[in-house]
Amino acid sequence: MGRAVTVACCALNQWALDFEGNLERIFRSIDIAKSRGARYRLGPELEICGYGCSDHYYESDTVLHSFQVLAKLLESPATQDIICDVGMPVLHRNVRYNCRVIFLNKKILLIRPKISLANTGNYRELRWFTPWNKARQVEEYFLPRIIQEVTGQETVPFGDGVLATKDTCLGSELCEELWAPNSPHIEMGLDGVEIFTNSSGSHHVLRKAHTRVDLVNSATAKNGGIYILANQKGCDGDRLYYDGCAMISMNGETIAQGSQFSLDDVEVLVATLDLEDVRSYRAEISSRNLAASKVNPYPRVKVNFALTSADVSVPTCMPIQWRHHSPEEEISLGPACWLWDYLRRSKQAGFLLPLSGGIDSSATACIVYSMCHQVCQAVKNGNADVLADARRIVNDETYTPEDPHEFCKRVFTTCYMASENSSQDTRNRAKLLAEQIGSYHINLNIDAAVKAIVGIFSLVTGRVPHFSVCGGSSRENLALQNVQARVRMVLAYLFAQLTLWSRGMPGGLLVLGSANVDESLRGYLTKYDCSSADINPIGGISKTDLKNFIQYCIENFQLTALRSIMSAPPTAELEPLVDGQVAQTDEADMGMTYAELSIYGKLRKIAKAGPYSMFCKLISVWKEICSPIEVASKVKHFFRMYSINRHKMTTLTPSYHAENYSPDDNRFDLRPFLYNTAWSWQFKCIDEEVNAFDSLYGFTFAALAM
C-alpha cells in the first residue's frame, strides 16, 4: 500500500488578460512539478486569465479565451500523468463562477466553483461572480465544443464535491474560504478528506503574512491532514502586489515555505509526505472522530489514479520553522518587486523621481535601489527572464546587470528642483544620496517658471500676491506655495519624457510619486503637485514605518547620506527661508504629528470610527497626556482637515497597497469627497461628553495623572 504522496503548489506571476504569457508560466510550473516527482499540481486563483481582470470578467471573451487556454493544457503531453488543478471563470446556466478545473490525462474530473467570495477591502468578487450555494451538491456541466473535442466528454461534475483517488481523498478551498468562519476544510476533514488545497489571490499587506500562515497551520492542527496553498505573485496590473508565500502544511506544522518576495515568475514548491502520519494523527483525536461519525458526506468523484508511491523508502519532508520578514524588509522587497513588474510590463526605460532630500522621496529612491539589488541578484542566480527584461529596458542585448549602482545609473534618474525657498542642506542631502545609490542626478531651479506664472496672474489682475512673512494673506501664501509644487509636477513629466532623448538614448521614464499614506489621509499635499505621478511605491506606507525603513537602509545598504535626512525635520520648503534656514515644518503646518496621524488613520478605517467614536476611544488612550477638551480639539481638527481635503483622493496617484488604513479612493476606501466639514451633529455629541466629564470630575485626566 502506498504511503508517500508528492504534491506541488505554485506561486505564479500572472498578468491580467495575458493569456499567452499565463499559459507559458502554467506549463513551466507543470514541467517543474513533474520533474520533481509530483503527482498533483496546484496553481493560483484564476491563473488562466489572471486574477485582476476586474470588469473584463463581464466580457464573454474572457471566458472564451480561458477555455481556449484550457484546451491547450488538456491536449498537451506535458499535462499527462499528473493531476492538474487550474483556475478560471466558468459560466454555468448563465451564471458566472470563480472555479477550479481539475483534470487528468485529457479528462476533466471536477469543476469546483468558489463558495465564499472575497468582497471586502480591495476585493469585489461579488461584482463579477456568484457564490456556489448548493452545499455538497454537484450538477452536470455541459462542456463547450472546444473542450469536448479534446476530452471526448459531453458533461462533467460541477459543484461542491471532492476527489477520491486510489489511495486518498482531496478537497478544494479557494482563497477566502480559508478565512471564513465556516471553512469547508472543517467538514471535509471530518468526512475523510486528507489533502486540502487552496488556490489564492492574496495580496501583500505589511505584517499580514503570519496571519495567513497561522490560518493554514491551524486548519490541520485540530483535524489533521495536509494543506497545500498556492498564491498569485507580483503586480498583475493594479495597485496590489500578490506576495506568493506558497506553502505546504501537515498536522498543524509547516512542511515547505515558498518565498514572499521574488523576481522569479514561476516558483514551484514540492513536498513528499506520509499519509499514514495524517491517519495516525487523527486516530487519537476522539472528539474529531465522534464529529466525523455524524457528518453529511460530500459527493465523491472517483479517480483511477494513485498519488502515492509504492516505494516505502522514499524520504518524506520534515517540519520547518517559518521565517517572517521584518516590516522594514517587507518595505524593501515588496514595493521593489512591484516596481520591477510595472517597469518591465509598461515597456518603459526607467524611473524619474523628484528627489527633495526629505524622508519620503529618499525612501522612494531607496526602494528603487533595492529593486536594482534584486535584479542583479536574480541575474546572478541565473534568472534568464530578469536578464532578458533588463537588456530590453536598457536597450542593450549584450548587457548583464552585475552592480546595483551601475544598473541604477541606467534606469533611475533623480532630480532636485530648487527654488529660492530651498535650503543648501536639502540640496546637498539629495546630491549625496544620488551619488551613493548611483542614480543619474539632475539639479535645476524652478524660480524662472514660478515667476513667469505669477507674472501672468499679476499682468491680468494688476495684483501681486505675497507670502505671509512679506505681509500677504493666508490665501496668497498658500497659492504661492501651490504654484511651486505644481511647476515641479510639470517639469517632472517634461524631464521624464525627454531626459533620455537629450542623452541620445531611446525610451521614456515613469514618474514616481512620494506622498506617504499619512499625508494623503490628512490631505497635506497640493493637488497636481509632485504627488501626482505615474505610480507611488510608498503611498500605502506610514511615516513611522518609512523612518524605520530609512534606518534599515543605513544599516543594510550602507547609505550614510540617510543619517542627515533622518535627523532633519520634515519640511515642504515652499515658504521663504529665515536667515537662510528653513522655518516651515510639516507637523507645524498640519497641526498634528505623524504619530497622531497614524493613530487617526487606523481608528478611522480599521476601527470604523467616526468623530464621536474616535473621541471616546482616545480619551482613554491619551488620558495620561491630554485632557478631554484637548482630545476633542485634536479629533475635530483631524476630521475638519480630512474632510476639507478628501477631494484630493480622487486624483491620488496609484500607490502600492501596504497598509489597511489607506485612504485610496479608487477601490479600497469608498467615501464622499464633498463633506459638510462642520460635522455639527457629531461635534455636538463630543462637546456634550466633554461637558459631562467636566461636571463629573471638575478636573482633567492629565491633572489626575499628576
CATH architecture of the largest domain: 4-Layer Sandwich
Shape: globular
Average predicted confidence as pLDDT:
93
Number of separate strands? 21
Described by strand count, sense and barrel closure, the largest sheet is:
15 strands, mixed
How would you classify the helix and strand content by structural class? alpha/beta
Distance between the termini: 75 Å
CATH superfamily of the largest domain: Carbon-nitrogen hydrolase
Strand content: 15-25%
Give the CATH topology of the largest domain: Nitrilase/N-carbamoyl-D-aminoacid amidohydrolase
CATH class of the largest domain: Alpha Beta
Helix count, per DSSP?
25
Low-pLDDT segments, ≥5 res: 700-706
Domain count, please report it.
Answer: 3
Helix coverage percent: 40-55%
User: What integer value in Å does the Rg equal?
Assistant: 29 Å
Organism: Turnix velox (Little buttonquail)
Protein name: Glutamine-dependent NAD(+) synthetase
Subunit structure: Homohexamer.
Family: In the C-terminal section; belongs to the NAD synthetase family.
Description:
Helix content is 42%, strand content 17%. The chain is built from 25 helices and 21 strands. Helix 1 (19-35) runs parallel beside helix 2 and helix 22 (611-621) crosses helix 23. The longest helix has 29 residues, at 474-502. The chain starts with a strand and ends with a helix.
What layout of secondary structure does this protein have?
Blueprint (H helix, E strand, L loop, with lengths): L3 E9 L6 H17 L4 E3 L17 H16 L7 E10 L2 E10 L2 E7 L11 H4 L9 E5 L2 H7 L3 E5 L2 E3 L4 E6 L1 H4 L4 H7 L4 E6 L8 H13 L4 E9 L7 E2 L3 E4 L2 E5 L8 E9 H9 L2 H7 L7 E3 L5 E2 L17 H20 L4 E4 L4 H22 L3 H11 L9 H8 E7 L5 H14 L2 E6 L1 H15 L12 H29 L7 E2 L5 H6 L20 H14 L5 H6 L18 H5 L3 H13 L4 H11 L6 H18 L34 H18 L3 H5 L1
Parallel strand pairs: 1-2, 1-11, 2-3, 8-16, 9-10, 10-11, 18-19, 18-21, 19-20
Antiparallel strand pairs: 1-15, 1-17, 3-4, 4-5, 6-7, 8-9, 11-12, 11-13, 13-14
GO molecular function: ATP binding; glutaminase activity; NAD+ synthase (glutamine-hydrolyzing) activity
Protein name: Glutamine-dependent NAD(+) synthetase
EC number: 6.3.5.1
